[in-house]
Amino acid sequence: MNRLLRDRLAAASLDAWAVVLPTECSGCGALDRALCTSCRLALLPAVHPVTRDDALVWAALTYEGVARHAIAAYKDGGRTDAAAALAAPLRAAIVAALAAVPSLNGPPAGIQLVTVPSSRRAWRVRGHHPVDALLRRAGLHPFPALAQHGEPVDQVGLNRAERAANKCNTLVARRPLDQVRIILVDDIVTTGATLLEARRAVFAAGGIVVGLAALAETRRLLPR
């Protein structure tokens, strides 16, 4: 079966299923499939570098509009049917982070992808780690290097200083990371407190952070 025929059969199956059990698009809410065509186009990666303190993070999307709705639906609304559309931009951000690693010639052998572990509270609610699942959907493999130490409060509503204090010393390495090269991966970067804490924990265990990647960034408001 050629690829074109396979894609058409898959699309026809989804159309038939949508008639039997209508589904709202997780990007705009219209009755459609997991994501309507326009929302899929809105989730095409536009990888760009952002800085948080002294860290440069490669982000694939901006956390607003369709991206905001689709990511929230995937993480907290149980809409795992949007995973494929989100895995592609996350992979693109990681590819950009890999390309920016100094003196990286040939295949990036030996570089591990490390995600920030979910809090115990989030794990109880979701039952899985959303970023790990996206990596696997993208054909990549997370390296379980970090673990939660303590239970930070929810970051929503906290300012930059409060987020940094809330995340301080909340992550530890599961094992020694002597000279292991690591790219840290997260879903949303806002103030950067989570990725900066993950970087601290990796450094404390002897690892080397060679890049940071995120699915989306929350744009920071410029001071007036």
UniProtKB/TrEMBL annotation:
Name the CDD domains on file.
PRTases_typeI (cd06223)
Recorded protein name is ComF family protein
The protein's matches in InterPro entries, at most eight in alphabetical order, are given as: ComF/GntX_DNA_util-trans, PRTase-like, PRTase_dom
- This chain's source organism reads Cryobacterium ruanii
Where are the coiled-coil regions?
none
The UniProt family comment states:
Belongs to the ComF/GntX family.
